[in-house]
Amino acid sequence: MKRRSFNATLLAGLGAPALIGLSGQARAAGKPTAIRIGFPGAGTGGRPLPTSGYPANAVFRSEIEQEFASEGIKVEWKYFVGAGPALNESFANGLLDFAFGHGDLPLLVGRSTGLKHKVLMSAGRGSDVYFVSPANSPAKTIADLKGKTLSVQKGTATQLQLYRVLAKYGFNDPEKEFRIISQIRDDQVASLSTGDIAGALLSPFGLEARGVAKRVAEIFDDPDISAPSTVWVGEAFEQQYPDIVQRVVTRLVKVAHWSTQEANRETQYQLWTRSGVNTYIDNKKSWDRVKDLRTRLNPLLDDYYVAAIKKSIDEAKKYRLIRREVSLDGWIERKYLNKALADLKLENYWPTQDASGKFTRT
Questions:
Q1: For residue range 203-227, what is the model confidence (pLDDT) as tens digits?
Q2: DSSP of 76-90
Q3: What is the pLDDT of residues 79-92, one digit of tens each?
Q4: Does a structural domain hold residue 1?
Q5: Beta-carbon neighbour count of residue 328 at 10 Å?
Q6: Residue 187: which CATH number?
Q7: Percent helix, strand, coil in the chain (nearest 5)?
Q8: 73 and 33 in one domain?
């Protein structure tokens, strides 16, 4: 298949012909020779490691490899410095079977351009959001930065999140009220240290300890600011290997359950430092606030998940990040998650949230 660039994918989202993700990998009749799993991100300096969450724990604990080791099925992990947009490009070129943790905006851009995948489970939800400025900035509020340069990796879930944060503080036309440039995280940190940008959304604690940044605003677990991320499988792979998909989902549910155990909290804080994105103190200070890990490390496709995705669709259209309609019809496939929860007797384990984000079962 001819390779396509992310620019082509983005243009398709704005009305150009759709891209269709098909697998070009040779497959055995009854099972794949390899399972190719993408993460929308990479560690510091492009280090091939995930950052946090229960899908990251599946990598650090070699869970998927263990599941298929006896059958000789290779597990290939792919990490994208270009984040969600680059993951879309890879899938469009037939190079991925699964995504573990795709954020809402690139997920929707992919869907709007015709990429064929099935939503399997939530990769997690909820977060604390921090708006930081250079450590020596005189700014005390986001309002003090109006007209200045902000940085975000455009095309990613953080772009929509930044717009939500700015709207919360009264800025409803962010691209006109600020100069917003696109940078990967490493470049954002460098630009904060030199004062070349006035602000970004980044975990602050390690940066503060190094004298790089300071907090200007912080928002804790606001369901209107943070949207769930998603685990999906390519439609062609799902149709050819439903048993493999079930085993991946069931294994991920097991990992999610392990990840919610209080006894494993500190272990995770350490595991999540391996990518170099967040320090131990970032993980500890952000996650110690979470008294019940089930509220974030949650695989459910409940009312909140669906409502949050619909809200993201509306926001992406509002900000002209997608122009085509995105339908949920036939996209969310719950049967694999439902079977995994039933088989593991975890149907009522995770708390559910209604469309507004209020917990309905704890």
A1: 999 999 999 999 999 999 999 999 9
A2: EEEE-TTHHHHHHHH
A3: 999 999 999 999 99
A4: no
A5: 12
A6: 3.40.190.10
A7: 40, 15, 40
A8: yes
Q: pLDDT of 47-60, one tens digit each? A: 999 999 999 999 99
How distant, in Å, are the alpha carbons of 84, 168, 187 from that of 153? 10, 20, 10
User: Are 246 and 68 contacting, i.e. CB atoms less than 8 angstroms apart?
Assistant: no
Q: Is residue 102 part of a domain?
A: yes
CA distance readout (Å), 26 to 91, 104, 254, 358: 15, 30, 29, 46
**Residue whose entry in the numeric block shows the structure tokens 């939500």:** 164
Burial 142-173 (b: 16+ CB within 10 A, else e): beebeeeebbbbbbbbbbbbbbbbbbeeebee
Model pLDDT, residue 323 = 87
- pLDDT per position as a tens digit, 6-21: 444 443 443 333 344 4
Same domain assignment for residues 164 and 178: yes
Residue with tokens 């209020």: 358
3-class state of residue 206 by DSSP: helix
